[in-house]
Amino acid sequence: MGWALTVISQASRFTLGLTGTLYGGPSTSIFWLLYRLAGEVRREFGFNDERRWSERFGLLKTTFYVDHDAELNDDGAYTGTRFFETVSEKPGISPAIVGLGLKYCTFSSLKDIGLPLPPYSEEIVRLPLSNAMQAQMAEADGSGSPPQGLLLWALEEQKTETGKGAISVWLNTAFNRPDAMFRPETVSFNRRLEGRGRFAVRRRETVLELDPVVNGEELLPKENWLVKTCQRERSLGRKVLVYVRQTGERDIQPRLAEILMGHKLRTGILRPSLAPAKRATWMKANADRFDVLLCNARLVETGLNLTMFATAVYFELEFSLYIVWQSMRRLYRPGANLPVKVLFPVYEDTLEEHALDLIGAKMLAAMTLYGDEISGALVDDGDDGDLMSDLVRKALGNLSVGRAEGIFSLGNDQLVTESPMGSPTAVSPHLVTLADLMARRREIIRASRPKARSTPLEPEGQLNLF
């Protein structure tokens, strides 16, 4: 494909290259595109200079591994002992790319291009926990003032020399447990006894034993809400795409599929074992077989057109706002036949609700600066880390965030700026091009010609002699 692009661009007078959001992927994703289209890039970089490109315009992560015999005071220190390192590129791009990109790039949104987009609406559905769920979450979470339960244990363990990582145990349990209370669970902690990194010696310890809060065919509140929502959407002729985060070792998709099919909803699951290149074809071929499709949002975050689904339900919220944005965009695309609806069900007074409020605040701040195309402001892994830190601060009472009433709220009432310099939060006005004028030349010429004088009307009751 790259060779074909090079040949075609050399044989063409003008070449238009298209790419997605710059900040959403690694910087090298646009290196070879610009290398083939911009002579300035070829003069400064060699074809295999992607490492030097990423050092200047991207984000690199360097990991050092040392022997377990090395005595290090801090992680990452090098005292001369034998080590090896790995260098990997992370999603993200440096603002310095603007100095190069402005010469060759134009940044446009779908609204600026004028493509027809479907109506969009979203709703945050806050569901109360049952009494049994509240009692268990007081132990499995315990955030509040003062801390209790698992959070109190994690805070105390963090103070000890071998307790590093205890906060992660609390965070994952408090975030994942509400949607998995239909099964028992053992909360464990891998205590580091000595060493660091991959050479550390650890001991697995049981921290907490949790029992299921429902028996038999009894449903959790969010599961019951999902069934009713999917049945309502099916009656309206709308297919539902349900995003689930726990799809690995803690997979809850089989449980949801069994529940939905038990209520006569045709349900399918998109598995990661299906190669990315085959997913679009598989979705088109099988969409008519399903009323509901379950999948992880990361499987469809880029590249797929899922306009056959009209409703998206984030049954479990993703940590990364960038992934949420991209997966939502799979439905909100030109050519969608039905209005797009996005639903965010969350349990009240849980870590998931706090995360949703934080994401809403992040989205509001990003849209203030970047307008509709906020995805350009986000970096995948960095966004995850910031959200995790904020969740811990909020649980400790060190962060106050307002109640989110929407995440994207794109709407259809689009503001249009009249400024010739444009606006980051409004759609640019439509520019009349030479091609537009040529297409309307006959209409313009007719409008510019003086109108012929019309014959005055004869008064009624009189004869015209001439």
Q: What are the key terms here?
A:
single chain, 466 residues, alpha/beta, Rossmann fold, 3 domains, 6-stranded parallel beta sheet, two-stranded antiparallel sheet, 17 helices, 10 strands, 14% strand, globular
- Major sheet: arrangement of strands: 3-10-9-6-8-7
Rg over C-alpha atoms, rounded to the nearest angstrom: 29 Å
How many DSSP helices?
Answer: 17
- Biggest beta sheet summary: 6 strands, parallel
CATH class of the largest domain: Alpha Beta
- Beta strand %: 5-15%
- Uncertain residue segments: 74-82, 368-385, 410-427
Measured distance between first and last alpha carbons = 79 Å
Assign a percent range to the helix content. 25-40%
- CATH T-level topology of the largest domain: Rossmann fold
Tell me the CATH architecture of the largest domain: 3-Layer(aba) Sandwich
Tell me the structural class. Answer: alpha/beta
Shape: globular
CATH homologous superfamily of the largest domain, by name? P-loop containing nucleotide triphosphate hydrolases
Structurally, the number of domains stands at 3
Number of strands: 10
Mean pLDDT: 77
